[in-house]
Specification:
It contains 14 helices and 23 strands. It is of the alpha/beta class and 529 residues long. The strands form 5 sheets. A 7-stranded mixed β-sheet has the order 2-1-9-8-7-10-11, with helices on both faces. It binds NADP nicotinamide-adenine-dinucleotide phosphate (NAP). The site of NADP nicotinamide-adenine-dinucleotide phosphate has 25 residues, from helix 7, helix 8 and helix 11.
Length: 529
Amino acid sequence: MNIAGNLLIGQSARRGTNGVSYALDAASGERLEPGFGGATLEDVDTACALAWAAFDVFRETSLEARAEFLETIAANILALGDVLVERCVAESGLPRARVEGERARTVGQLRMFAGVVRAGDFLEARVDPAQPERKPLPRADLRMRHIGLGPVAVFGASNFPLAFSVAGGDTASAFAAGCPVIVKAHAAHPGTSELVGMAVSKAVKDCGMPEGTFSLLFGSGREIGQGLVRDPRIKAVGFTGSRHAGTDLMAIAAARREPIPVYAEMSSINPVLLFPHALEQRGEAIAQSFVQSLTLGAGQFCTNPGLILAVEGPALDRFVAAASEALVRAPSATMLTPGIHRAFETGVSKFAEHPQVQTVARAQPAAGAHKGQGALFLTSAAAFREHAELQEEIFGAASLIVRCPDLQTMLALIESLEGQLTAALHIDEADYAAARSFLPALERRVGRVLVNGFGTGVEVSHAMVHGGPYPSTADGRSTSVGSLAIRRYLRPVSYQDMPEALLPEALKAANPWKVNWLLDGKIEIGRCG
Ligand code: NAP
């Protein structure tokens, strides 16, 4: 498979006619061939028409067929081999090992969703059999399952060119739910997007899925992205990126004649709380792992530790000194795009010039295109409370340490925070009582509370929550990582007194798919015949 710069609209690969754009080599800033033809609104219309036509067929494919489809995408991505890895390294500037790891995560995610589909629990099948003799009124036969919402528009994320892009978590969970997907590719990695897009398109063909199950479009967010979200045949949106773009999409989706859910993962500063005993006993060691987490992947993770809260005193001073020393030794790293680097520099300058903020360390500068030079800042609890701008995410390796006079102030600051993806507590047993008193506030503010670690390195599993109250995500009832992500794209349908011949397979009396039922309110495991 070669990169040709084509749109993939159903099974047709064709050149877009709405301008040409190029990928940049992230390390050198040089243009990479070939050019990518942009999509027009007519292309959006064609992709939506195909997706809509595919929906009823795709969502009724058997669990086995859909699971095999997901596994085939995974196999086709692996079959792209080094071509994919090399292009992804060039476009993203991420090290080869990270890209290989991300490919493994992408493939693992697809396979995990194949398992979820095979198990059939996502259908949440429920059966309340008729009670014709019930007095004073008989009960009707009621059966319920979940179906896919409809075609989903997915916006590829810049910071996960594989795991949260064309065949990433949003796409895998939407397919698993039975929803066709139209991806708006991220301009930061178009070649990677086309290669993965071809792997998905091939899987559609290999597995005999309807043509409109998948399309990939290149073009601007404002024209093509918003055009997709406005299209009445699109029924949900998956997005990872800036708060600005996410909230624009939320507004557009809410203003539609039929409003639709937008699952946007936007901004989070992921507070890290250093409790007194842990800080006293092992502050220097925590500082080392903090700087490792802060600078990982040039800090371009939504779970990057952007805020440290601790009680002032000699132990915190030692932590600041150790973290500064570690950061000064850390090399600057290539950021994903010139735009992301500019946004990082702007955010860092704002903090550096803030009268209430002290710059305590910068990472080692480095020559080369858009290198992100890590930054560590210090401020007081009073300044943090007064200046809302100090809560803003600086996407990249930048973090703010807030000195609090006492634990009550630390708790009050947690209460003042916007919604977050994660909060990390550093505690020893002697800190448990204090930590316990923070938990209610943390549960209200964040999607994942973790202990003696950092939020980076998000496990793709069943109990993971990568979500949180606004603005960390648009809808804190969901997660974009892990098997629960499938719920975003499902809705329940109930069937009352439906003749057996018309019931969906999962709800037929003989339960041919052998899925688990909630029978009259009690779990019934894979009921057979
Ligand atoms: P972005 O600017 O939000 O772009 C993400 C996607 O949305 C792109 O495909 C973009 O298309 C599209 N888009 C942008 N503005 C739009 C709008 N008003 N309406 C519709 N679509 C729109 O994010 P980015 O390029 O990845 O990075 C920029 C900043 O986003 C970063 O500096 C960082 O602050 C933040 N970010 C946060 C996270 C996180 O996980 N928290 C992850 C990535 C980025 P175009 O091709 O037209 O740009």
